[in-house]
């Protein structure tokens, strides 16, 4: 047994044992049954409640300066400009957040119970506000991109419609001009035919009148000559 004990001690010395504190939920040893009084009594007897009370009375939250600045630097980004000292940055952030009863150590910052939750809440608020700003800018960018696309498409459509309307108007004007030209040529042709017909009729009438006048004058001269001949 001594050898076994020595072997056990050697095994424990060569390892890193972890102890788990178990709590018996009920005296019946059945599942899904919790006896609150019995559980609290076990925690009280085991010193768990006292350890929690002592932890809350002290500084349960301990963060290195780098971890603290890396997590809560968003609460005061302007405080980190031009400063490479994490300790000074931690001090400035805590002063800006107006926290009290904290301690600054050599390598860590010590916070009381609830202060970390307060800082996390403020950090979540800042991140939420930043997320809303980013979302607003992204929505603005997407809306503007869609607007530019719709405007470009509308411009192209308007240009196409205007071009079609102008082409149709030009075609109508061209046909109208061609119709006017055809009408002008037809009217000129009809007017020329009427003029030529009237000219031919006038020439025929003038010819007949001149011939009748010439025959009448010839008959008069003939009669005059016969009269003179008779008289002689």
TrEMBL record:
Domain Myosin motor: 1-124
A Gene Ontology cellular-component term: cytoplasm
Domain of life: Eukaryota
Actin-binding: region residues: 5-27
Annotated GO MF terms: actin filament binding; ATP binding; microfilament motor activity
Pfam families membership: IQ, Myosin_head
GO biological process assignments: actin filament organization; actin filament-based movement
Database matches in InterPro entries: IQ_motif_EF-hand-BS, Kinesin_motor_dom_sf, Myosin_head_motor_dom-like, P-loop_NTPase
Keyword field: Actin-binding, ATP-binding, Coiled coil, Motor protein, Myosin, Nucleotide-binding, Repeat
Family membership: Belongs to the TRAFAC class myosin-kinesin ATPase superfamily. Myosin family.
Protein name: Myosin motor domain-containing protein
